[in-house]
Amino acid sequence: xxxxxxxxxxxxxxxxxxxxxxxxxxxxxxxxxxxxxxxxxxxxxxxxxxxxxxxxxxxxxxxxxxxxxxxxxxxxxxxxxxxxxxxxxxxxxxxxxxxxxxxxxxxxxxxxxxxxxxxxxxxxxxxxxxxxxxxxxxxxxxxxxxxxxxxxxxxxxxxxxxxxxxxxxxxxxxxxxxxxxxxxxxxxxxxxxxxxxxxxxxxxxxxxxxxxxxxxxxxxxxxxxxxxxxxxxxxxxxxxxxxxxxxxxxxxxxxxxxxxxxxxxxxxxxxxxxxxxxxxxxxxxxxxxxxxxxxxxxxxxxxxxxxxxxxxxxxxxxxxxxxxxxxxxxxxxxxxxxxxxxxxxxxxxxxxxxxxxxxxxxxxxxxxxxxxxxxxxxxxxxxxxxxxxxxxxxxxxxxxxxxxxxxxxxxxxxxxxxxxxxxxxxxxxxxxxxxxxxxxxxxxxxxxxxxxxxxxxxxxxxxxxxxxxxxxxxxxxxxxxxxxxxxxxxxxxxxxxxxxxxxxxxxxxxxxxxxxxxxxxxxxxxxxxxxxxxxxxxxxxxxxxxxxxxxxxxxxxxxxxxxxxxxxxxxxxxxxxxxxxxxxxxxxxxx
Length: 591
Hints:
The structure is a single chain. The chain is α/β, with parallel strands linked by helices and 591 residues long. It has 3 domains: 10-73 and 226-387 and 399-430, 3-Layer(aba) Sandwich (Aminopeptidase); 76-222, Glucose Oxidase, domain 1 (3-Layer(bba) Sandwich); 440-590. The protein has helices spanning 10-21, 25-35, 45-60, 119-122, 139-151, 198-210, 258-277, 300-308, 310-316, 343-354, 415-430, 439-456, 463-487, 490-493, 497-522, 546-550, 557-590, and strands spanning 64-86, 90-92, 95-96, 108-115, 132-135, 156-160, 193-196, 214-235, 244-250, 285-291, 317-322, 332-338, 361-362, 378-384. Strands 1, 2, 3, 4, 5, 6, 7, 8, 9, 10, 11, 12, 13 and 14 form a 14-stranded mixed sheet that branches. Strand 1 and strand 2 form a beta hairpin. Helix 1 (10-21) packs antiparallel against helix 11 (415-430), helix 10 crosses helix 11 and helix 15 packs antiparallel against helix 17. The protein is globular, with a radius of gyration of 25 Å. The relative contact order is 0.13.
């Protein structure tokens, strides 16, 4: 493994032990018990109470803090009803979704049909126009079905909440990320959406299997701009005070949200308390953010923060650690998600601190992952549940429901992610060289381009880009060698001014590489935009549309227009690879 990825000196390791020993279950419990008494919906009085509580604790710990208040574009659920009119007459309790077009006051009447989990395979065979669709499955499959139902002209949707109890979720069908722009303002609202519990969903499913079913559905939701609050705490480092690790997680919730996300909020407060005691031993700083408008604004809080503090994040943030869904009773092990250049670092920390060998996955475009465009290395993780064999036994049935209460939290499990995340933050703050490596990213780049080339060999030449990735990998390896060479003399030259400048040059290069490469590797919206929520990650998203080009007739105008678009995207990638190549060459030349 690259030396700087697993770098930790004996003195630093002792410091990490001291920090971890400060962890207090009682402090966590205190925060958790207060926050879970509040229904922390964005723009409400309870959200304000939570924000003030967070700031009061930060002030108490001597952490510089502020609550930003701004107009956030959010949606909150209203009243909803569901009645079967034929072949029986029966009413069902339900919850309204958000970001929906309200039904007329009298409701809408239409046929109820079932849209199964295999919707992407059979949607051509199902005519949903003007009908109410019943949607089951996991959250991911329901989101896919909801999107297809909208595109195919369904009049409304009824989502079935997984699990054995009568709990009901609040459905959020919007995919526009953050507050709208002129290009997305007309894409914010969906036809009416409601949810029912699992038992009632099964009843409706069985009814539909027997014959034609007519329902009357009413649903209402408020949507617009509302004053929302975003608490932020800052601990500055002593050696490089402008640089910081960004630590975030949402504090809003639909209901009491004990596990989602009051636990993570409490962990961040505990980290702020402990890290503040040892601030003089932090080289880089830590910035704690409590995002709002997570579900209620499609990650509007983190997006607003990026948009409004772009220069600071671009120039000074070294990595983004997200916290969500921690400390759930019955969860175990550790699941890690990350972007490519920080993958080995996170896996190494987990192995060392928790004694677990994990194979991490690529972080998904969800859950306040708003920082890919700016090129910020990202990681998250926590204990997890095995995938259930059937959704009746879903261990997370209570997520996003009124049942997510304190009894769903295991206070002992919380310490597991605290340890892993605290050590990750400390090393991101104190390692002399940032623990990123770009050999893995260069390989992923090349494999992604090869896959695309195989699908389009006769119509689009990606070979020059593939050659560029080979050069990138080669020069990234040279950089790693130069880093190791410099670190081997750290003990002798720690106070040498010219040596310090070399380390600064290395770290500047590593940050700039992530800013150059991650946007073109990870997003299709580009550096300044946001891909829609639920976007499936594939390497080099902008070129994935080569598949569409393959399906078109070469003499058609559509084909030629697509080819022009893809050629320009190819040129963007070539420029990024070329810029990264020159940066590496220049940096290694200075070392």
